[in-house]
């Protein structure tokens, strides 16, 4: 059996930047174990598998895998898969489609060359002390932004938001792998555990996402799910309406731009992230 697949770079306006994604079509007959093995073989941050396709109504059902686990929600795979479906699979490049992922349906909109998704309502979990982070990183107390709490937030995948006081602190960040892994296991609520460090300077936002996979400390080029969490966090703590660009991936030579457009009205979070995608390749995968 062979599967058609596409490779795209997501959250970037040029090739060979942003976050890589493999999108596998006609994957409805694959088991989760087979999908996991393929994702591990290709070894991108995530790969997606289109298990159901409704071309008449511009709908699809997908599953998302990192090299080590299945994800309930992830931003760059949803943005990249949507770009492939809109521009390569569905007829007449529809502006609006719907993707079903494990947490539920996600509304997608293409406006010019940006793909936008609307995230689920956030949940705000535990607040942590900055002193915790000085134990497994090179950060000093003065390196932390003190206005907002350090907090775990989820919109489907959970991340700990850690605000820093300068771009230099973000750039020079170093984590101890073993101590970081122990802290994440002891403190985070879900199997997927990530730290999202950010620096906000006026309307400019810079970020880095680090996590442990296969006992290795890894950094992601562009993390859409973490960006939806950060947007919710900033709407709650910074200001109730946001429109800016989140710059990620610069420190691993995969510069990325994640567009934020959000609004908080009462207790309702309208969280949208958007990005461009670049077509890299297509082919057939032998199963």
TrEMBL record:
It comes from Flavobacterium cheongpyeongense. The active site is at residue 46. Belongs to the PhzF family. This is PhzF family phenazine biosynthesis protein. InterPro entries: Phenazine_PhzF-like. PANTHER family: ANTISENSE-ENHANCING SEQUENCE 1, PHENAZINE BIOSYNTHESIS PROTEIN. GO terms for molecular function: isomerase activity. GO terms for cellular component: cytoplasm. Pfam families: PhzC-PhzF.
């Amino acid at each position: 059996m062979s599967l058609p697949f596409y490779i795209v770079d997501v959250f970037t306006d040029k090739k060979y930047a942003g976050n890589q994604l493999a999108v596998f079509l006609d994957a409805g007959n694959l088991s989760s174990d087979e999908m996991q093995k393929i994702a591990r073989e290709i070894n991108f941050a995530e790969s997606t598998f289109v298990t159901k396709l409704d071309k008449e109504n511009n709908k699809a059902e997908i599953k998302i895998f990192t090299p080590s686990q299945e994800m309930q929600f992830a931003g760059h795979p949803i943005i990249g898969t949507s770009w492939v479906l809109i521009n390569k699979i569905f007829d007449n490049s529809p502006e609006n489609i719907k993707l079903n992922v494990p947490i539920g349906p996600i509304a997608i909109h293409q406006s010019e060359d940006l793909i936008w998704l609307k995230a689920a309502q956030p949940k705000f979990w535990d607040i942590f002390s900055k002193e915790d982070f000085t134990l497994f990183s090179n950060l000093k107390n003065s390196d932390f932004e003190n206005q907002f709490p350090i907090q775990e937030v989820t919109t489907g995948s959970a991340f700990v938001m850690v605000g820093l006081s300068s771009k230099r602190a973000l750039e020079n960040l170093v984590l101890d792998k073993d101590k970081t892994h122990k802290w994440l296991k002891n403190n985070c609520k879900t199997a997927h555990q990530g730290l999202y460090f950010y620096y906000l300077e006026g309307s400019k936002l810079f970020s880095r996402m680090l996590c442990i996979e296969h006992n290795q400390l890894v950094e992601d080029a562009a993390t859409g799910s973490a960006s939806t969490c950060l947007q919710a966090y900033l709407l709650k703590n910074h200001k109730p309406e946001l429109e800016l660009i989140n710059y990620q991936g610069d420190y691993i030579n995969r510069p990325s731009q994640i567009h934020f457009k959000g609004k908080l009205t009462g207790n309702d979070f309208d969280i949208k992230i958007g990005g461009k995608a670049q077509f890299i390749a297509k082919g057939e995968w032998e199963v």
